[in-house]
Structures are given as structure tokens and as C-alpha cells.
Fold each of these.
Amino acid sequence: ENGDQTKEPACFSSVIPGWFSEMSPMWPGEAHSLKVEKVLFQGKSDYQDVIVFQSATYGKVLVLDGVIQLTERDECAYQEMITHLPLCSIPNPKKVLVIGGGDGGVLREVARHASVEQIDMCEIDKMVVDVSKQFFPNVAIGFEDPRVNLVIGDGVAFLKNAAEGSYDAVIVDSSDPIGPAKELFEKPFFQSVARALRPGGVVCTQAESLWLHMDIIEDIVSNCREIFKGSVNYAWTSVPTYPRHVSLPFNIHGVIGFMLCSTEGPDVDFKNPVNPIDDSSSKSDAPLKFYNAEIHSAAFCLPSFAMKVIESK
Ligand code: SAM
């Protein structure tokens, strides 16, 4: 199960020897690189290649199919924003579903909300969960919350079978639409999400980079406008180690977007959060590092080129 430890994958050698270079058809012509101190795990699951390495500057790094999923240094930005943007936008979220997110970081963030009674998670790849528990204890700590029910399986099938109107919020913490997450970006999946949400329920999905993937974002927005009859919004944030639009290995300006939608029912004004998160509410939690009310509202401000496309859909 641990794969062939002797063969060096292309991502460790093809740009700068001793560095990891992130290459993907999702961002042709560029390869962000991080200096590798030590490779800690290399395996192949039924779904993807899994690598963990110690980097020189970003702590430990989790890589799936050659693409960085998280680093210890900047994971807070992604996990806090994908979670608190939806959950701080509705009063008293009680039942939350997470699709993907096998590292446990989103669970850690959902668990900060005292109103939440049940957290279901459907992750396709058990190896991601196991590797996270072994190498990223501060992220996988999310699995320890007693409200969590973990199901290993395909999120698409899980949502098809979910009871109608059963969730206050669905968070789709997926990898890119190449490989097992492909269907998580398609219309039938969004239809099942809408079906599983209560009236006025909210969804937040990982929605790629404004700089690189406007075509993917356009499709997601037009599907969501057809399906979600409440509100449909695009937000974004900065995550240094996510894909960027420049090719220099040392120039790091990654961004990641989120699609935030609500179903018909009580109005959800995502830009003005009604459920502020109170750091002091759960004494055992480490404090938030990235999210606050100002950055919540600011996340919905779009650059002009993106506003033009997103608002025309
Ligand atoms: N939390 C990460 C971060 O900080 O950037 C984001 C990536 S998370 C590890 C993405 C997860 O989605 C992976 O663990 C992957 O196995 C999972 N996944 C991909 N396709 C899936 C599917 N169809 N159903 C459920 N989980 C899926």
C-alpha cells in the first residue's frame, strides 16, 4: 500500500533537483516549487497518489496526484474561510455535511460552532484520513469531535441518498476536477446538494482560481444560478501555496475561490454575516488565525475582470 519508495516521482526532480514542483494540466506552463527537506510518505491509494514531505519553509505538505492540498503554514486560511463563510452566514447551524476534506481541517473548524449538533463527512479516500492522522495531528484533530460521523465513500453517491431538506449547510472541500473529484463540479451534484439542504440552507464549495480557471468558474456559476433559488455568490481568499499565475518558483501568490449559495427560503445575505464566531466560546480551541468578520465581507469583493463574467451569468 505504501507504493514504490525507491522510484523518485517526476514532481521531485524535473524542475529543480531536491525541490517539489507542482505540475498539472490545470495550470500548464507553470510549476510552483518548494524545497524538500525529507519525504515522509509515498503511497498509492485506489484513487490517487499520496505524498507527504517536510518542506524547508511551509512545514509538512500533503500532496495528492502531484497537487498540494495543504501545508502546515497556510492551511488555516483555506480551512477557516471555506467553513466560516457559510456557517457564520446563517443563524444556529445544527446539521452540517462535509464532502471530501479527508485531512480533517474543515471538521476542526466546524467544531468551533457550538450550535452544531451533527457533522457528517463523506471522504472517498481512507488513505488521506490515515495519513493526516499520522502526519498532521493539528489538522486531523477535527476527527476527534464526538459530533463527527465519518463515512468513507463517494460524495456524489452519498448526497444522492441523503434525506431531502436535511442539512443546514453543506461544505464541499474537494480536490480539483481531475480525478475522483470531477463529478463534484458538475450540475447533477449541485442538484443533489440543493435537494439535501433545508429551505434557506447554504452550500460552500471549493471553486478554483480567478487567475487560472475562469472557464470552470463560469460553468459553476451558471449551474448554480439555475439550481439555487436563494442567493449565488463567489468569494475568494489568499492561500500562498495554491496555484498562481506566475511561473517563477519563488513568487508565491496563490488564490482560491469559493461558491456560496443558498436555497429558496429565509434570505441569506452572505456578505453580512449574522452568526459571528466567538473565539472564547470553546476554551479548548486554538484561536482563529485568519478568519474575522472584516475578511468575511471583503472576500466577496471581486476584481473587475471577474465581476464582469460572474455577474453576467
Ligand atoms: N482541506 C484541503 C486544503 O486545506 O486545501 C483541501 C483538499 S481535501 C484533502 C480534498 C479531498 O477530497 C481529498 O481528500 C479527496 O480524496 C477528496 N475527494 C475527491 N473526490 C471525492 C469524492 N468524489 N467524494 C468524496 N471525497 C472526494
Amino acid sequence: KAKEQRGSLSFFSDDLTTAVRRRLELEQRLRRALERKELCLYYQPQWSIDGAEMTGVEALIRWQDPERGMIPPVEFIPVAEQSILIGMIGRWVLHEASAQIAAWQRQGLAVPRVAVNVSPQQLRYHYLPDEVAEVLEQTGIAPDLLELELTESALMAPGQDTEKMLNALRALGVRLAIDDFGTGYSSLAYLKRFPLDLLKIDKSFTDDLLESSQARAIVETIIVLGHKLGLGVLAEGVEYEAQRCELERLGCHQFQGYLKSRPLSVVELEALLAAD
Ligand code: C2E
Ligand code: CA
Ligand code: CA
Ligand code: CA
């Protein structure tokens, strides 16, 4: 009996060891990637709902691994979030995006507002207003060119004074958006307490907008909510003209999606900015 137990225990811990080893390995490679500057930002344009005007861009991280090629964020951000790496990455993204804005300004390009994704851990374990203030000072950019995308779960995390932190960020002049709106666990009460600028309707709702009356009802409600609270509303993941058209009819302000542009490299975006 004892032997059997020991056997199953060691089987179990072997499995665990493999998972842990793989995670540590990825962590180590990621740490090296950060040092070797193998991380970069792509920028996906955001458009006024009629598609006539670029209203901003969202910075999306990529890992350019010399051996494995381009690694998407879903493959390394969740791992980074389980270690202190996410703090380092978050800080790097904030700095890189702001430095890019400054560089575009020097080049005389029409600089779009840049939205940056903030992970819940970054909000929780680093005092974000200090990091943002530091980056603004280092790069000298206008604060309203920077938008922070926060998720509902990050805002709802217990044990932090979120309201105070958001007010400090607002005082710096940066814009605040709620990412993946409608998918997290949160109460609507925070919408009136927090100083917010934009609701981003999650792609899952956009996907079903034309097929499901429930998804449609949710999208419609988010748009009305945004209007009544004086917040901008942006729909994510718009792939078809029929979706854009319906969103426009419902009064949505902005959209982002493959319909008009995928995330672009700096060179590709600069070509687009210079074209108009
Ligand atoms: P997200 O913030 O919801 O970003 C939107 C994702 O949807 C991006 O994927 C984007 O490329 C993709 N997307 C945009 N339009 C369309 C469309 O029309 N169709 C389809 N199928 N996809 C579309 P990506 O770049 O792979 O990023 C995935 C997630 O990784 C992001 O989701 C975000 O949660 C996270 N992420 C990306 N960059 C960062 C970062 O710098 N920091 C942190 N903490 N997370 C990041
Ligand atoms: Ca986002
Ligand atoms: Ca999103
Ligand atoms: Ca998402």
C-alpha cells in the first residue's frame, strides 16, 4: 500500500516538475529576450466608426525570437504574469510606446494617441502613477496621447485603493479605458466612481452581433450606457463591413479590427501616417 502511494506520488510530482521546468525555461528565455531587445510593439489603428479617421492605435506586444520566429502574447504574457517579469515587461511597454510617440513627433508625423495594455499584476504590485509620471517626464510627451487599457478584474482586485490610483493617473492627464468590457466580473457601480474615458466592447460580442439577439442586446446596452455616462465606446475585433455598419447604426463611436487594419509594424504604421 505504502509503495503504491509512493509510486503515484512520484508520478504526480514528475508531471509537476515538467510543468514547472517548462515554465521556468520560458521565463528564462523571456528574461533574456527583454535584455536582448527581442520584444517589440505592433500598433493596431483605431478608427472613427465611419472609418474616415484614425483616432488612435493600440500597442500590442510581440516577441521576435531568432529561432522560433514571432511569438504572440498569448504564449508568454500569462507566464510572465506569474512572475516578476510582468512588472519589467509592463514598464518596458509603457516606456517604448511613449518613446515611440516622441520619435514620431520629432519626425513631424501626425501622432496618434497610443493605448497601452496594463496587466492586473502591474496595477496591483507597482504603483502605476509613479511609473507613468516617470515615463512622461523622461519622454516629454503630452499625457493625453497615452491611454491605459485596464480590465475589469484588475479594477476589482481586492486590497488596493483603485479609486485613489485612478484619480492619481487622471491627475497626470493620461486617458483611461476599460478593455474587454462586459466579460469580467465587476459591478457597474465602479463606472460612476472611476474617472474613465472609454469602454472597449469585447470582440466576443462583436463576433456574435449579427447572429445573436442576446449579443446585440448587450452591445446596444453598452453603447447606451457609454452615451449616458459620457464615455467613448469602441468595438473591438470588427472583421466585416456588416458589423461596422450595424455598430454605426447603434451609435458606437469607434472601432478596431481586421476590416480596416491588422496590428502593424512601426514601419508599416509610419507609411500609413505619412500617407495622409
Ligand atoms: P487585447 O488587449 O484584447 O487585444 C486585442 C487582440 O485582438 C490582439 O491580439 C489583436 O491583434 C486582436 N485583434 C484585433 N482585431 C482583430 C480582428 O478583427 N480579428 C481577430 N481575430 N483578432 C483581432 P494579440 O496582439 O495577439 O494580443 C492578445 C492579448 O495579449 C491582448 O488582448 C492583451 O490582453 C495581451 N497583450 C498584448 N499586448 C500586451 C501588452 O503589451 N501588455 C499586456 N499586459 N498584455 C498584452
Ligand atoms: Ca487591449
Ligand atoms: Ca480587448
Ligand atoms: Ca481580448
